[in-house]
């Protein structure tokens, strides 16, 4: 893996895991980044309907790096189900308007799975019984208030926030103005089909600035900072 565009002194040789951690460290805290993967023709999933069917070894290295750096992982309930998320060493926050916890996350130790949901969620009572009321964050009446979600996670001591999608959640986070950075891998494949892009939903227009671009075997791995309006 080599640096094509990056900070001065990033180095020209093969990157170690420590090099990757240094290159992906947030410039400041708190910091919320979203990590996604796509093919050259813009597909966010492959034939299985999962991002796991298009990612590769370079993408997995950066994926693992971001998880090591993160205080907490944020993911939409649909993505957590589709990708088979299970509990790990880093707490996972499931965003679900219906208040449902994916099956594979139901056996996590207390505090390793949190739910971000809303007052009208159908599964609210069940999720409180399953996770404990203190681990269910009710943030809004009919939908999850993502500004409040970021604020609450920071209040809980989580400052390096990593979101892993899916496309609808990324779009909504961008619309709410709470994303600091997009990290995205472009794998050298064309898959066609009618699969989703990395964003889905009503249009948004968010300018980005490229701060890092890595390459390995034709795979491109980038960091783009969200450009804040000066108005």
Q: Outline the biggest β-sheet.
A: 10 strands, mixed
**How large is the share of residues in beta strands?**
25-35%
End-to-end separation: 39 Å
Shape: globular
Topology pattern, helix = H, strand = E: EHEHEHEEHEHEHEEE
Task: Explain what the structure shows.
- It contains six helices and ten strands; from the N terminus they run E-H-E-H-E-H-E-E-H-E-H-E-H-E-E-E.
- It has helices at residues 17-24, 57-69, 77-82, 124-131, 146-155, 167-176, and strands at 2-5, 31-39, 72-76, 92-95, 113-117, 136-138, 160-163, 181-187, 208-216, 219-226.
- Strands 1-9-10-8-2-7-3-4-5-6 form a ten-stranded mixed sheet, sandwiched between helices.
- Strand 9 (208-216) and strand 10 form a beta hairpin.
- Helix 1 packs across helix 2.
- The longest helix is centred in the N-terminal third of the chain and has 13 residues, at 57-69.
- The chain is globular and about 55 Å long.
């Amino acid at each position: 893996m080599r640096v094509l565009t990056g900070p001065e002194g990033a180095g020209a040789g093969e990157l170690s895991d420590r090099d990757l951690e240094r290159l992906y460290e947030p410039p400041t805290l708190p910091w919320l980044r979203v990590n996604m993967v796509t093919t050259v023709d813009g597909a966010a999933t492959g034939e299985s309907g999962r991002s796991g069917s298009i990612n590769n070894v370079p993408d997995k290295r950066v994926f693992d790096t971001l998880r090591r750096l993160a205080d907490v992982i944020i993911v939409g309930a649909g993505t957590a189900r589709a990708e088979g998320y299970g509990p790990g060493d880093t707490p996972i926050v499931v965003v679900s308007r219906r208040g449902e916890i994916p099956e594979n996350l139901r056996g996590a130790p207390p505090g390793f799975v949190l739910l971000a949901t809303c007052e009208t969620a159908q599964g609210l009572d069940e999720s409180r019984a399953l996770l404990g009321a203190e681990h269910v964050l009710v943030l809004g009446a009919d939908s999850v208030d993502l500004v409040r979600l970021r604020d609450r996670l920071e209040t809980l001591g989580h400052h390096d926030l990593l979101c892993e999608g899916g496309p609808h959640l990324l779009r909504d986070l961008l619309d709410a103005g709470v994303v600091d950075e997009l990290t995205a891998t472009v794998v050298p494949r064309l898959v066609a089909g009618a699969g989703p892009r990395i964003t889905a939903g009503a249009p948004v227009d968010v300018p980005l600035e490229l701060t890092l671009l890595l390459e390995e075997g034709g795979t491109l791995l980038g960091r783009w900072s969200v450009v804040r309006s000066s108005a």
